[in-house]
Request: fold
Amino acid sequence: MEITIGGETYNVQYVETMREVWDALSKERVKPKWCVYDVETDGLHIKKARPYIGAFLFAKKVFVFPTTKENCNHLLYCINHIGMLYNHNINFDMHMTANITEDDEWPLKVKRYGDTMGLCRLSFEAISERDGGDSLRLKPIMDKYIDPTASRFEKAVKKWLSDKKAADRKVLIALLRGHGWTMKRFEEALNKGTEPIPEEVMKTFWTWRNEYPEPTYKDVPLEILMPYVAVDAIGVDLLVKKALPVVYHRKQQHIMETEWDLLPHVYEMERQGIPVDREYLMDAGEKLDAYIKRLQAKAEELAGRKFSVGQHAVIKDIYEERTGERPDSTDKKFLKFMADGGDELAKTISTLRRLEKWKSTYIDRILEVSEYDGKFYTLMNQFNPVSGRFSGDAQQFPKDPIKDENGEVIFHPRRAFKMRGYYIDFSQVELRMQAHYTLYLGGDLNLCRAYMPFKCVHYKTGEEYDYKTVEGRARWNELKEGASLQEFDKMWKAQHGDKEWEFADVCRAGLTAWVVPETGEPWTPTDVHTMTTLKALRIMGFVPEEMDPKDIKWWRSKGKTFNFMRNYGGGDAKAAETLDISLEAAKAMNRGYSEAFPLVVTYQNMVINEMRRKGYCQNMSGRRYYLSEPWKFYKVANYLIQGSCADDLKKKMIRIAKFIKENNLKMRMVLCVHDEIQFRVDDPAEDWAIPHIKRIMEDCPDIMVPIVAEVDFSDTYWSEKRSVLLV
DNA sequence: GCTGATGAAGG
DNA sequence: TCCCTTCATCAGCG
Reply:
């Protein structure tokens, strides 16, 4: 059959084996530049789900075929004959094909992958979906950019399914009538337990269900299913044709190639999975359930009625009755305000919300997905965030445990993951990147001095610290002659026990080789959050030297939050709201920030000017961010920082994968969380590789600020990771 | 069943 | 002018 999408006609045919595909391919006079391969599956679990039908496309020919093991193995020859394989979110098809061929290596045998999600990311404007930007899902993209009628084939499939369901239902209705029951009565009894169902009625129901099982896509007649399967592949083909020129025009080929290099490594990481301690989760789940029940009873008693903590309207009713005023919101801020005033109910609702979220997200869900083989598999979306970062569901596991009313730890989400492994994360990498960007403007003194002895001189030779060369930069943590970190570590432990030291402590001990010329004192890294805070406090008329250290600490935590907010482009009003401080205090924070880090403010303004001039900006790797609406330009200052770090991490992942392969190591990357890479290292004999990997991660010749990676280790659970000193 | 609002979590 | 995200639940709509 022929299908026309977006004015282009494709030939679609069903084949049982790959022979006809290969024949057609060998008849092509010109070798196609790429091919498309897409599968339909019975689920989404990357190990459990199985494909049942697939589509393979090249040169406007689509072959729909049953995805048997043999067909998939033969398909590999066709794919590699062409040499370039595209799909939309192709990692998923890699997993599905590995599942059906029972060969985890199958996807790694494909010569080269491309992903139209990646092409879209590099062609779309840099607006997140939340802010009205384009979705990265294939259907809306096809609707908007390819052909709005393309969905007609999916509609036909859905219509067939609902017609079939309705017809089957009619049979059941007739059968129930024989027992004197209506469908409505039966469903209520079945779902809500309104009345007992006689055995013979149940028996009739099960006989019917057996004979008429719930129809799935597999049951759809081929002539309806075939175009539906084909049209996704056609959409991908058209998308490549349309987006590739945009990527070239925007000079994003090199970013694209790096992303394509990374694709198989991401597949390998996803494929690893992390072993789950299911017993622990079940045990913690029971404790959490009991605690939730106790709190629900307490909330019911306090409110005088039954309600759930997600029922915002009901909670508003309760507070309207209590205070005579209907709250605009029942959010955390409102509840905290009430709780601070001594309201026990508000406190209980807040705790319950957190507990219920944790129970469903970190216990029930992990138990469900790990049921298959005891492992937690997570997808790492390589293209969704506009900045270039990864996204995925494993990126937000709480760092701290949850405690019950007696202060006893009842659940720590990270305790559920058991693995001998290393966790290497970059230290404050985005702030270091921000410092790097100010160096193009001469360097922000305070921010740069947080990470290197910027404009400091050597205590012995008097030479100025050289941040412009790799060799000069490597000396950022140089110590005075005779001083050593090992000695310091010993001394520190004798004085402070288990508390970890930071490099700033080494500097404060006077061991650094660098001297601040203005003061003649040894260089000590700036504490950027304290810097903003102290300046703001003085602006507010406080004398920090005379303040209670406890108050300073409180204000510093506000200063820290403010610094991040301000880096993202936040203003006074929003800061006052988020930090829960007065507008005057927020304004003081802002002035304190500007005084402390004037060149960051200059940098932000320059980005906006650049956007006005060109309509785009490009990060350190050359990834561009295009925006057409000027009021959004302020976002780009952060895109550049976030995206430069993300692209750096992506390139590091490729280098690390190469290092692991070259050294024939069994260790594997299993996850990355923004600025951290996690490694499973089963064999202690491979521990030697970790310092090498750390050095790969710290090797950033283009960043003028030293990049530092810190190593943690655990041979039991994620929650137990502890820092390892690698000198 | 889908969508938007709301709120929990990560960097 | 608060950046990038995921996931769960509830309420309202068709």
Remarks:
- DSSP finds 27 helices and 20 strands in chain A.
- The longest helix of chain A spans residues 222-249.
